[in-house]
Amino acid sequence: MSRMKLKRGILDLVVASALWGTIGIATQVGYEEGAGSFQVIVFRNLTATLLVVLAFRDLRAILNKASVVMGVIATLFYEVYIYSVEVLGASLSAVFLYTAPVWVVLASRRLGDRLTWRKVLASLLVVVGVYLIYFSRISLTDLGWGLASGLTYAFLIVYSRYMQLKGFKDRDILASQSVWSLPFSLLFLPLYPQVDEASIATGAYLGVVATFLAYLFFYRGMRATDSITATVISSLEPVFTIVFALVLLHQTLTPLQYLGSGIIILSSFLVSL
Fold it and tell me: d(Cα 142, Cα 139) in Å, to the nearest integer?
């Protein structure tokens, strides 16, 4: 792998992290306006699917079992994560979401990704860093839901890497995730039938920015690096969220949040060496 290709891949992953870093601001504004979490997921998937159809048009490459499985995994991750947000809150759920690097490390050998001490250390540092940013105490039940969100997120990343290694193009992986997750997410809509403008607007924003654009950058970056590096660098998301909150919402940081952000940046630097 050329050094230039690696640097370009790392830059793609940083861009994806920055786009995901806007999720917290967008959802906070949406929820304040009355948006519903599950409705947001449906309109996020619907928007991403429409963009995929308009941009790629030929979707014959996703008419297979592997692509359907990707849709199921994506839906499972979205639903578990949203529920963990409800029981843990947005901040604490982020802590467990980013236990994903540890799970990815455990699975990386089966994918053929090279495992080094820097990657292992960086994965552990991510968990420490995110925990410091969102320091809190929780019950064992809530702990289980939090870990489930991190595990399903890791499963999404690992399966995406598996599809890359099987020869799927990045656009086809994104299409599989968006198109096939839509019918499965619609199954949950009858539980929350109310539709409002806030849910539509929030879902549309997430569909365009946090799904279609972000995953295009993420998959291209992961193809140029590996699953561990991609997961660790994507953990810059809460750091970008903090930066956006400082600039747009004029929020302040605690010393622990500064420390946690620094540790996450250090972990990203370690896997970039």
Answer: 5
Domain count of the fold of the chain:
1
Is residue 224 within 8 A of residue 18, CB to CB? The reply is no
pLDDT exceeds 80 at position 257: no
C-beta separation of 226 from 113 below 8 A: yes
Cβ–Cβ under 8 Å, residues 22 and 238:
no
Q: How many CB atoms lie within 10 A of CB 3?
A: 7
- Domain limits at 166? 3-272
Q: Which helix (H) or strand (E) holds 49?
A: helix 37-56
Residue type, 28: Q
Q: Tell me the whole-structure pTM to 2 decimals.
A: 0.84
pLDDT in tens, 150-180: 889 889 999 999 999 999 999 999 999 999 9
b/e code 59-68 from CB counts within 10 Å (16+ = b): beebeeeebb
Residue that wins the pLDDT comparison between 167 and 130 = 167
